Amino acid sequence: MYAVRLFCTRHARAFESVYKGLEKVFLSLHPLLKGIGYNRLERPVAMIEQMSKGFLFDCKMCGQCVLSSAGMSCPMNCPKNIRNGPCGGVRDGGFCEVRPEMRCVWVEAWNGAKTMQNGLERIRVVQPPVNRELKGSSSWLRIIREKGAMKEASKRQLDPAKSELAQAFAKARKLEPAAVPLAKEPVAALAEQAVKEQTSVHSTQETTSQ
Amino acid sequence: MIKVQQPEPYDPLSQVPLVPPPGHYSASKLERVLRKGLFAVTAELNPPDSADPRDVLKAAEPLVEVADAINATDASGANCHMSSMAICSLLSRAGQGSVFQISCRDRNRIAIQGDVLGVAALGVGNVLCLSGDGVGVGDQPGAKAVFDFDAISLLRTLKTMRNEGVFLSGRKLTTPPNIFLGAAANPCIQPLEWRAERLAKKVTAGADFIQTNYIFDVDVFEKFMETLRKEGLHKKVFILAGVGPLASAKAARWMRTNVPGIHIPDRVVDRLEKADNPGEEGKKLCIELVRQMRQIEGVAGVHIMAYRREHMVNEIIEASGVLADRQ
Known about the structure:
The complex is a heterodimer. By secondary structure, chain A is mostly helical.
């Protein structure tokens, strides 16, 4: 909801602390979550995430949450989906070029970041383009998986095909690992469309081989 | 008439790819001029709604004598015109330096990375990365807006292609593109407080030069430059200040209401309104702006956007005297 969203960026510092606290708790749960299986957890957690973040931030479930690096203002609400804003079209008073009745998401973001403890340091980091395969999946689980994998340093779990992106956006990888994920994605976390395409490719291959 | 040395016409099939001079990223004249410390001039070409190559050369004619590179806009204002890549290619063949503009609005990461290899192969040395205006302001508001990249993630991607010789996917390039990377800035538009920060982020992402949007408010721009100088950014990136001749008070009002990201102060509109010949006054104002930009520490050149007034570009630059050090 728009009004709630604006409230959240105005109180970015409080949300930053809540996020930091929650992350610590969940990170310590990584072994347990791994035991249950991230694939099994994906759907229920994504549903909770969508409801809560949807209410608070108008979250679009991009699956690669960078709220903490965007002053707690969700960049997917920018009509241009800009992840490193604001663009050059901002209207007088800080309103959106495309939707003049809406405050510019990135003006709110920088204002929010200024009030946060690490806000400015993080908003200055160059964010990579969104991986559209991950739409609809849980960012929370992805953050824990990525940070967990980094701690374990179990390089075998990391996908080498994505390492160039991680190198090109090294700082984002360090601070927002979910925006530059390297750990293996559970099947349930891939966008439904992508999964469907994969299964249809598999079934065609199977038919051809038969 | 000012004599400006023009490069040889470029035929991509009979010549090896252009080799950048030592210490340069590209073989572009613009980069050479800027690195020499000369005051650079770039000019925007109004792309034709035509499939006739002669229309491109005709549009470029009033610009070639003074411009170190000609910007070929990429469907600016979301209006459909001849593509930037085709215009740049035609200009290369005519021996003119050009700036290939990429708007993230119309193409995804697959198309853009391929296009950049293409323009480099065609002898184009400069690329300008833009997020792009929304589709709603253009002639085809029902189009699908892409915005796969934004200007900053695009800059970092092209820098990775050039410096590391790989696509974003990690696949290797056999010959990386020798390109001079540009980005835009809009110093006179809200949020003024964060404009310098955004420029800094573009430099971090990979920008070698900046072309700003129209500046009619020199006071605001001076403050912006002061912030950049404090951060030492003017030494990390070449800044070309955007200027242009206004046709009349009516045109100025229309621009600031209908074109996204343009700020024209009332005092400028008033000055045109009171003038006996608004067209001449607009030209005079532009010459003054060019001279003022030359005086600001950290400004490396000007970028002239003379929409439908291209015929004035020669005169403006000559009258301003900023190319005097070229002789």
